[in-house]
Design goal:
about 70 residues, single chain, alpha+beta, 3 strands, 3-stranded antiparallel β-sheet, Metal Transport, Frataxin, Chain A
C-alpha cells in the first residue's frame, strides 16, 4: 500500500492531517477517539508492520480499514 492509498482510506475513516513532522513524516489524528500517529510520506509501499503500527496507534481495526 502506498502513502496515497493510505491517506485516502484514513480520510474515509474520519482521520485528518494535523501537521508536518520531521523530514517526510506527518502527524495524523483520528477525530473519533482523538488518537494520533506518525505517517511516513515515502515513495513506494509502506511496510506491513508500519501499517499495523499506524492503525493500532489510531485505534482503527484492520477489518474496518480494509472495508473503507
Amino acid at each position: 500500500m502506498t502513502y496515497r492509498q493510505l491517506v485516502r482510506k484514513l480520510r474515509t475513516l474520519d482521520c485528518e492531517f494535523m501537521r508536518q513532522s520531521k523530514g517526510s513524516h506527518e502527524i495524523w489524528t483520528n477525530r473519533r477517539n482523538n488518537r494520533s500517529a506518525v505517517v511516513p510520506n515515502h515513495p513506494g509501499d509502506i511496510p506491513p508492520g508500519t501499517l499495523r503500527a499506524i492503525l493500532a496507534q489510531l485505534g482503527i481495526d484492520r477489518d474496518e480499514f480494509d472495508a473503507a
